[in-house]
Design a protein that fits this description.
Elements: E1 11-14, H1 20-31, E2 35-40, H2 46-54, E3 59-63, H3 71-85, E4 90-93, H4 108-136, E5 139-144, H5 157-177, E6 182-189, H6 198-202, H7 204-213, H8 222-233, E7 244-247
Parallel strand pairs: 1-2, 1-4, 2-3, 4-5, 5-6, 6-7
């Protein structure tokens, strides 16, 4: 019997895989043995693709903008990964954006943009991948939620709403697809050193307040979120359905 965390021969698609948490997950999946396709929008994928190649794994990348995705575009992304890698066993819905603004002033367009990227794309890609995985009787879908799936946050009404909804979607798909051999689970990262938190980290007062609240006393590095994805993608998580793994340095425990 192989190691339960071994992903050799598995084929994964990671959205937003060229930077931040997505890059960390793409690299970790490849280190565990998987071939990895990824989507990117503005960050060039050359660096992470080179790292994956150095591990002897196959990689592929496609540019995708999730701010106005429809079902056809989602199917095209999933089909790209399947064609490039020869199949699809793992989908990691990582791509996400955040908009910080007082709720009394947030324009509807910004609200819709956040919900489109953070929720609509997760639904459409999961649906497209889920059809294939249900038909083959096996698959792993991992959504990247947030500690703000459990809290309201400050000045991020769209983001918090979208991440609450991602957990609801994760559980709904789990209920439909677990009996078909498809595991649908979520990771809830805490504050992580990525582009999405750059403004917070550049604000001395806000950064200090956050660090005082985090028992670990620091922001996470993207690679520290990736282990949870490897676990959920592996045979070690065969009986995990609708689970949420929190990786937050103790934020929610405070």
């Amino acid at each position: 019997m192989g190691h339960p965390f071994d992903l050799t021969g598995r084929r994964a698609l990671v959205t937003g895989g060229a930077t931040g948490i997505g890059e960390g997950i793409a690299r970790a999946l490849a280190e565990a043995g998987a071939d990895v396709a990824l989507t990117y929008r503005s960050h060039a994928p050359d660096d992470i693709r080179g790292r994956i190649a150095d591990m002897g794994r196959r990689s592929a990348a496609v540019r995708a903008d999730f701010t106005d995705m429809d079902a056809s575009a989602a199917t095209q992304v999933v089909d790209f990964a399947r064609d490039a890698l020869g199949g699809l066993d793992i989908l990691v819905n990582n791509a996400g954006i955040i908009h910080r603004e007082d709720s009394t002033h947030m324009p509807l367009d910004d609200w819709r943009r956040v919900l489109s990227v953070n929720l609509d794309s997760v639904w459409l890609l999961s649906q497209a991948a889920g059809r294939h995985m249900v038909a083959q009787g096996a698959g792993r879908i991992i959504t990247v939620a947030s500690v703000l799936s459990h809290q309201g946050g400050l000045r991020v009404a769209g983001y918090a709403s979208s991440k609450h909804a991602v957990l609801g979607l994760t559980r709904a798909l789990c209920n439909e697809w677990a009996s078909h051999g498809v595991n649908v689970n979520a990771i809830a990262p805490g504050y992580t050193a990525t582009d999405n938190t750059q403004a917070l980290r550049d604000d001395p007062e806000r950064s200090r307040a956050l660090l005082e609240r985090i028992p670990a006393g620091r922001f996470a590095e993207p690679a520290e979120i990736a282990g949870a994805a490897v676990f959920l993608a592996s045979d070690a998580a065969a009986y995990c359905h609708g689970s949420v793994i929190t990786v937050d340095g103790g934020w929610l425990a405070r």
